[in-house]
Amino acid sequence: GVQVDAVVLESSYTNVREAAAHIPLTKIYRQFPGFEYLVLDSLALGNMFFHSDENVKVLACPLLILHAEDDAVLPLHLGRKLFETARSAYKDKTKVKFITFPEKLGLGHDYISFNPELPALVK
Question: Rounded to two decimals, what is the model's pTM?
Answer without folding.
Answer: 0.84
